[in-house]
Structure formats: C-alpha cells, structure tokens
Prior knowledge:
Radius of gyration: 19 Å
Largest sheet: 5 strands, antiparallel
CATH superfamily: Hotdog Thioesterase
Bound molecules: coenzyme A
CATH topology: Thiol Ester Dehydrase, Chain A
Amino acid sequence: MTDPSVPPPTGKPTSYSRVTLSRIMTAVDVNLYGTVHGGVLMKFVDDVAGAAAARHFGGTAVTAAIDEIVFAEPVRVGDLVHAHAQVNWTGHTSMEVGVRVVAERWDSAEEAPIEVATAYLVFVGVDVSGNPRPVRPVLPETGEDKRRFREAEIRREHRLARRRAIQDHRGSHDSPVDDSPVAS
Ligand SMILES: CC(C)(COP(=O)(O)OP(=O)(O)OC[C@H]1O[C@@H](n2cnc3c(N)ncnc32)[C@H](O)[C@@H]1OP(=O)(O)O)[C@@H](O)C(=O)NCCC(=O)NCCS
C-alpha cells in the first residue's frame, strides 16, 4: 500500500535512465545447439533493465513482469553483445523498461551490430519492506521517446484487459479446484 498523501517526486527525462551493458559470450553460455542459451540472454536483459529502473527510481526496483521478449537472431560464442535499456513509461509505482540487444559478430567486427532481441519489462519501485512506492514520472524528450511512451500505454491497457477477461472467464465457469503443477 502506498500513502496517497505523499506526492511523487519531480520527473526525470527518459535519457536519465538510459543504461548499456556489454559482454562477450563464451562457451559456458551456449545451449545444446551451440548458440547462446535464451536464459543467458534473459538474465542479461533483466540485469540491464533493472539498472535502468533503479536509476530512474533512485532506489530498489523489482521485476514484476516480463511482458514480452523476442529473440530475432541467434547469438554465437565470441559475439560482443550490447544490451541498451531505458524507462519508457511510468505509472504510479510501476515502470515499463524497454530493452534492445544487439550483437557484433566476432568474425565480422566491421559490420554494423545486428539486433538479436527486444524485450519489455515491468518494474515496481519498493521500500525497504518490499512495499510499492510512487515512482517519479518519466518525461519523454524526443519524438521516439513519446512514441515508446504511448506504445507502453497500449501494452499496459492490453495486459490489464487480458487479466480482466481471464478473471471474467473464470468467474463464469464453475471449475473444480485445479491442483496441477502447471501455470495457473
Ligand atoms: C512486484 C510487487 C512488489 C507488486 O506488489 P503488489 O502488492 O502486487 O503491488 P500492487 O498490486 O499495489 O501493484 C503495484 C504496481 O505494480 C503493477 N503490477 C503488479 N503486478 C504486475 C504484473 N504482474 N504485471 C504488470 N504490472 C504489475 C501494478 O499495475 C501497479 O502499478 P501502478 O502502481 O503503476 O498502477 C510484488 O508482487 C513482488 O514483490 N513480487 C516479487 C518481485 C520479485 O521478487 N522479482 C524478482 C526479483 S527482482
């Protein structure tokens, strides 16, 4: 529960939260097929998004949801991979962080980096007890920032609508108690 009498602090421009992490992929990062494991990239994405969220929030921010992650191209051992993140949108206590991952191929370093993954994550700013706290607003600066802000709103509207539709569906069916170990 957040205290509604406490006003959120003044905003920060989108560029304030921008963070890039880079690393070279090694043999311990690969899957059975010899390309970089999706889980390795997911951790990398979560790390850079967490850094952007914490910078914008000015404190601890936890991952509430990974809304979407798309792997566009395989990543190989030796590739120099850069993950770029920024806060696209802020709500009351939550933030959407957009991440773009690009790779420089080790054997064609003169070519432009290629996009290998994109992701959108929701972070929530929390206090020392883990309770949500108001986040300062993000202030989109450029046309691109404004487009990303609006698209983040669309994703949030869809997420909330989907949750409501599933709750309504469950409310309209008398299902027996499901004790299966799969996702609810
Ligand atoms: C994230 C967490 C703090 C939210 O707590 P909560 O009591 O459910 O919070 P609320 O219902 O008040 O929601 C707080 C905000 O989070 C958003 N939120 C909560 N669950 C969400 C979800 N599954 N997807 C997207 N947004 C979500 C809400 O929309 C709300 O946003 P707003 O304030 O901008 O409108 C809590 O669920 C938690 O601690 N989860 C574990 C986090 C964690 O361990 N992450 C991995 C390691 S960092």
